[in-house]
Amino acid sequence: MGVCPQFDVVWPTLSVEEHLNFYARMRGYAGNVVNNIAKDAAVEVDLGHVPHRRVGRLSGGMKRRVSLAISLIGNPSTIFLDEPTTGLDPETKRNMWSILDLNKPGRSIVLTTHSMEEADALCDRIGIMAYGALRCLGSSLHLKSKFGDGYKVEVTFHDGKVDDGCKMLLEQLEGSTIGSQFGNTVVFVLRDGLLLSNVFSIMNDKQVASTFILEWNIRQTSMEEVFVKISYQAEEQQMTSGSSRAVVPTLNPPPSSPPSPSTLVSTTPQCL
Question: What pTM, to 2 d.p., does this model score?
Answer without folding.
Answer: 0.70
